[in-house]
Write a structure and sequence with these properties.
Layout (H helix, E strand, L loop, with lengths): L2 E9 L6 H14 L1 H4 L2 E7 L6 H11 L3 E5 L6 H10 L3 E7 L10 H10 L4 E5 L6 E4 L3 H17 L11 E5 H10 L7 H12 L3 E5 L1 E3 L10 H16 L2 H17 L1 H5 L4 E3 L5 H17 L6 E2 L8 E2 L7 H4 L3 H7 L1 H27 L4 H13 L1 H6 L4 H4 L3 H14 L3 H16 L3 H21 L1 H35 L32 H4 L15 H13 L4 H16 L4 E3 L6 E3 L23 H18 L3 H15 L9 E3 L5 H4 L12 E4 L9 H8 L12 E4 L4 E4 L5 H12 L7 H13 L2 E6 L5 H12 L4 E3 L2 E5 L2 H5 L1
Parallel strand pairs: 1-2, 1-4, 2-3, 5-8, 6-9, 16-19
Antiparallel strand pairs: 4-7, 5-7, 10-15, 11-12, 13-14, 17-18, 19-21, 20-21
């Protein structure tokens, strides 16, 4: 059956309006038989309980081209349209409401647009500047409608300003494919169909129309809310079963890695975390405490007393620690710490999987392998010991995707606004990872632009415009926090990391300590510490990446990825590096950046983290091609090579040790008898990056007292150079030396005077010595410094040094 145009009219209890509507449609189509050709008019009775069905039958008896389709009850507009469109045969399909709020004469505009623009759909739009609203709804109803439409647009079909106008003309075959795929029965069907067209890449054009509000309309303001609820179902349906399975596998892998920590949250401590677990639990606890008591979340004096800590200048991850405040208050900071590590790793892998599947591969399992490597790569696992700010990177793929959308230039303002909001949130998750991501994106953009200059020319203008919009959104939001970070109390200029923080070239070929084929003996000499094994991809994987690049060299994306990875690897070598097995030292490219603002605080070996997603994408591209090749031998050999490169770097579970018990002096609140207002606890030795058990005492017992010293980033010296820990004093240095050596030095009046001055500077109320390594030597030293023996209270030695009590 050859039909040029099908008109579908859904009807539910429309006996008062259906007759005139059918007469008008038939008259218009009969008026130009040469233009509309063979046509059919399909009335879908959606379970009407009035005379709608009789009117339709009477009209059909007079005009054989009117067809009647009846459902088995009232299911909604979506169900009715689906029945009608799937029953149609037309080369074009028009759907229109039974009230003809948009006159049938507007079909001429839609038809011209559909032909002229080579669109797949031309839809009536009341929001178009050239539209004419002849009869308005009530103002409140119009306002609700506009707000609902904006929400729908933001959630489902960005760029389409009026999804709900009931006058749409489609290419017939495409319409039947879209409605056959649809599932919604209510008003959300319009959005579902338009999303299908978008997903398939079929152009949709909005056309200005005349529109008049019709009394008795069945669309109510609250129906926009119902549409949004249906869109939630639509979004859920868009998630494929394989996506759920892949995310579940990522979660399982994360749980297995941290199983030792989860097995004993009360006493478990990640063995390679150094003092960082204590520090991070303290960060979560103090943020929750600040939020709960409506205090400034950017500052505290609970550490580094009395000067305090600039929390914005430390990696407190306010983007997570603030929203997780209820969890921290209810279950404690250790639960928050474990949850952030486990779910953060899962979310990061899922985000990379989503980006790769969305833009680069056709096979979801290829994307899963690439996403898994980007998140579970050896340097990521190394940071998983102690640095959640480098593990929780789920926003980076989202930012990359939004930047790519800007290059497409479809909706520069919207994408720029979202990019600005995403960047703002990432700043509150981790500034250094954002800087490294920006470096990687810049390296990729420059290299891809050189390879595909045509693409670069087309993308430059919308990208720059979008970045300007993003900056206009982001900068006002972060101005105050960043101002506090760089100029507020306890701010600093740059972090003093020391020399030799770059990677050795051998670090890229060696296996990490926590990789399946790795060992601490091979990795430790090449890394600053076990949380900074920032390369260690292993020689098989490096060889595989080189082979993939050679094999796919003609692909512009592969060339850009290769340049990005190699450039990041060279930058990570630092200002200078030694050629392995020689005495030859060369200047590294990082030297040009080493003393520049922001870059001067970066540990340069971390630049090699950029290589993780680069390698992940290369692996995904290779696997994607191998899975579709018809040569079985090539497929088997290729997949075996990928497996041989990945298996050696599979991560092993994080080892856990038992943490020391908190003394009863702290858990039972005995310290309160020794502290007056404004006084601190001075532990022996003072908490520092090397030993920060006092932070655990605080975070596990409700932050009831401040401590002198601490483990944080703060200023030191007249230049306010950033260091790890509080500004050292003579007494704190002395106590650290005694703990390390076990030798009691000669203590004279000068040392005693210095100790009194340092205790006054710390506003000390009590000095506490807990059981520890070389505690006998520490006790003897403190006894000589203070000129009095300690008292055994609650499992610790204490010295009451409160100024007022000593005077008394």
């Amino acid at each position: 059956m050859s039909v040029d145009l099908s008109v579908v009219v859904p009807a539910y209890n429309e006996e008062d309006r259906l007759g005139p509507t059918l007469d008008a449609i038939c008259a218009h189509l009969r008026g130009e038989p040469g233009r509309w050709g063979e046509w059919e008019l399909i009335v879908v009775d959606d379970g009407s309980t009035d005379g709608t069905a009789k009117i339709a039958k009477d009209a059909s008896a007079e005009e054989p081209r009117i067809q009647i389709v009846s459902g088995d009850g009232n299911h909604g507009k979506g169900s009715a349209l689906r029945l009608g469109v799937l029953a149609s045969y037309g080369r074009r399909v028009l759907i229109t409401d039974a009230d003809l709020a948009t006159p049938i004469e507007e079909l001429d505009r839609l038809d011209k647009q559909l032909a002229a623009e080579d669109s797949a759909a031309a839809i009536g739009s009341r929001a178009h500047p050239d539209s004419r609203i002849e009869v308005h709804q009530r103002r409140s109803r119009e306002w609700l409608g506009r707000m609902g439409n904006r929400l729908i647009r933001a959630v489902a079909v960005p760029g389409i300003h009026d999804t709900q106008c009931g006058f749409k003309l489609f290419d017939g075959d495409k319409a039947r494919a879209a409605f056959a795929d649809s599932r919604l029965d209510g008003w959300g069907i319009d959005v579902e169909i338009l999303r299908f067209f978008r997903r398939e890449g079929w152009p949709v054009t909005e056309v200005p129309v005349r529109w008049s509000h019709q009394a008795g309309s069945k669309v109510r303001p609250l129906d926009y809310g119902r549409v949004l609820l249906e869109l939630v179902r639509l979004r859920a349906r868009a998630v494929r079963p394989v996506d759920i399975l892949v995310t579940g596998l990522f979660l399982l892998a994360s749980v297995l890695l941290y199983k030792g920590l989860w097995a004993d949250l009360d006493r478990g401590y990640l063995a390679d975390a150094g003092s960082d677990q204590n520090q991070w639990e303290w960060f979560f606890a103090v943020t929750a405490d600040n939020v709960a008591h409506l205090r400034n979340p950017l500052f505290t004096t609970l550490q580094g007393y009395p000067d305090g800590v600039n929390l914005m200048a430390n990696t407190v991850m306010l983007g997570l620690s603030v929203p997780l405040t209820p969890l921290t208050l209810l279950f404690g900071p250790t639960v928050t710490w474990a949850l952030v590590l486990t779910l953060g790793l899962t979310a990061t892998a899922t985000a990379w999987y989503w980006l790769i599947a969305r833009r680069l591969t056709t096979n979801r399992w290829a994307a899963a392998i690439g996403g898994a490597f980007a998140a579970f790569a050896p340097p990521m696992i190394s940071h998983g010991n102690a640095h959640p700010n480098f593990l929780v990177l789920f926003m980076i793929p989202v930012i990359v995707d939004r930047a790519l959308r800007l290059c497409e230039g479809r909706n520069v303002v919207r994408d720029g606004v979202l990019l600005g909001l995403f960047a703002t949130y990432q700043i509150f998750l981790g500034e250094e990872p954002l800087l490294l991501a920006a470096m990687g994106m810049l390296l990729f953009a420059l290299s891809y632009g050189l390879v595909r200059r045509d693409v670069a020319r087309a993308a430059t203008r919308p990208l720059l415009r979008g970045l300007a919009v993003a900056a206009a959104v982001c900068l006002p939001l972060v101005a105050f926090p960043l101002g506090w970070q760089f100029f507020g109390p306890q701010s600093y200029t740059s972090v003093l990391h020391g020399d030799n923080m770059g990677n050795s070239p051998l670090a890229f070929l060696e296996f990490a300590g926590r990789s399946l084929m790795g060992s601490d003996e091979g990795a430790d000499p090449l890394a600053f510490n076990r949380t900074e094994q920032n390369a260690f991809y292993g020689w098989p994987l490096v060889a595989l990446a080189a082979a993939i690049v050679v094999r796919l060299w003609r692909v512009a994306l592969v060339k850009a990825l290769a340049f990005t990875g190699v450039a990041a690897a060279f930058l990570s070598l630092g200002p200078k590096f030694r050629i392995p097995y020689t005495d030859i030292v060369l200047t590294g490219p990082w030297r040009a950046l080493a003393h520049q603002p922001l870059f001067e605080s970066v540990i340069e070996s971390r630049v090699a983290l950029i290589c993780a997603p680069v390698l992940g994408v290369l692996i995904a591209l290779a696997v994607d091609r191998l899975l579709v090749t018809r040569e079985r031998v090539h497929r088997a050999v290729g997949l075996a090579a990928v497996a041989a490169a990945l298996v050696p770097v599979l991560p092993t579970p994080y080892p856990v040790r038992e943490r020391a018990e908190i003394p009863a002096f702290v858990t039972e609140g005995m310290y309160s008898a020794y502290l007056s207002e404004g006084e601190s606890v001075v532990t022996v030795p003072l908490p520092s990056p090397g030993s920060a058990e006092a932070l655990h005492w605080q975070s596990a017992t409700g932050l009831g007292f401040p401590v002198a010293g601490g483990y944080f980033n703060g200023p030191w010296g007249p230049d306010r150079m950033g260091i790890y820990g509080a500004t050292p004093r003579h007494t704190s240095n002395l106590l650290n030396d005694v703990r390390g050596s076990g030798r009691v030095p000669v203590i004279g009046p000068n040392w005693q005077a210095q100790a009194r001055g340092d205790l006054a500077a710390w506003r000390a109320g009590v000095v506490v010595l807990a059981p520890q390594y070389n505690d006998a030597a520490l006790y003897a030293t403190v006894e000589k410094l203070l000129g009095q023996p300690g008292k055994r209270v609650g499992g610790v030695w204490v010295w009451d040094v409160g100024a007022e009590r000593m005077r008394g």
